[in-house]
Amino acid sequence: MLALTSIWTTILLAAAVALGPMAIDMYLPALPQIGADFNAGTDQVQFTLSIYLIGFALAQLVCGPLADRFGRKPVMIGGMLLFALASIGCALASNIESLQLFRFLQALGGSAGPVLGRAVVRDVYTPREAAKILALLAGMMALAPAVAPTLGGFIVATMDWHWIFIVMAVYALVMVAVIAFGIPEPLRPENRQPFRFCHLMRNYRRISTDMTFIGYTLTSAAIYGGLFAFLSGSAFVLIDVLGVAPEHFGLYTAITAAGYLLGNMASIRLAGRYLPDQILLYGLATTLTAGATMTLLAYHNIYSPWAVVLPQALFMAGTGMVLPQTMAGALANHPTMAGSASALLGFIQMTAASAAGALVGILHDGTPLVMATIIAVCAGLGLIGYLFLVQRYPAPGFEAQGAGSN
To answer: Which sequence ranges are marked TM in the entry (predicted)?
Structure first.
């Protein structure tokens, strides 16, 4: 077993947490082909993404408290086994409805990785340290959106989209072995919480009335909405509208993932000189600039893959600065119920992501404008959350000079 503070433990956690995002990113290049194979409309195909986000959000509300009661490892292992079985079901789906069902089940299992990855970091580190470790974790995870769409595009071009889900199942089974034999249980016995309905409701009520948690969570959820607006619409915009070949789709999304990685690296570098809330503000300003730029380009009918990808790369750089700070800030006041706090954070994030993704699918008009506008609006909402909530109720030690006064 590795030490919990070892860099190798962080790497293994990143690999486990990446399972959930990989289930989104890897199959994006296949969306047009899935629609053609099942004779399904854009909204029906896009719903395979939205229903994944819905399942992901709902499952976290149970997954977090289960991990607070029984420990992080058994819940994470059980979730990944369910993910593997559901992935095989996706590969064998014979119509769009069965694919949607198995995507929902896939999400129930896949939620364990991100929820418990955040909880493990909070178990081991202080809030200020957690912001830096979460940025490092997120930087490693940036490899998933960089590599997964490229691999998915290659599979679509050379074999068949069904094989994407077989690869997901194999990856999940490998991670089961890694977690079982490589990572020790981080939850201390004295921090285990009863798994009783009244106790869960009391914990969730306590977390959901914490204004610090609300501020960081809503800010994070808004930026998540912008991120998933791009994930939901990018395949249709880049492949169907702008003519990008499916096998090249991953190369464009790798550029946006590189922006995310640069944002994470900047977050880590700036942590030694600036407070987390200062880094958060810089990240939010970056996302708003990027969203507005993409919207203006689309509004003026400048249709090019680069008019979408380069602003989105800048948006992702801002996202890489925002998410570690908001996640650490949301969990800061709840060290003894980090699983439940992480679950509620994830539920709200994924609810916002699902809503933004569904809007892109419903309003898609054959141009990049709808997607770009939703991204810009989400960035604006994130900045509003910071100005009206985070500045008034900062996490301990996170606030900039002069902040924190009501």
So the answer is: 45-63, 75-96, 102-121, 133-157, 163-183, 213-239, 251-272, 279-299, 305-323, 344-363, 369-389
More confident residue, 386 or 132: 386
Amino acid occupying residue 300: H
| Rounded Cα–Cα distance for residues 102 and 48 (Å) | 9
Residues 6+ positions from 396 with CB-CB distance below 8 Å: 127, 332, 333
Rounded Cα gap, residues 202 and 75, in angstroms? 22
Q: Which two tokens stand for residue 342?
A: 């992480």
Nearest to 204 by CA among 13, 346, 307: 346
Average pLDDT across the chain, whole number: 86
Convert 47-68 to b/e letters by CB count within 10 Å (16 or more is b).
Answer: bbbbbbbbbbbbbbbbbbbbbb
291-303 tens-digit pLDDT: 999 999 999 999 9
The structural domains of the chain, ordered by start, are: 1-183 (1.20.1250.20), 210-395 (1.20.1250.20)
Best CA proximity match to 253, nearest among 367, 103, 110, 152: 152
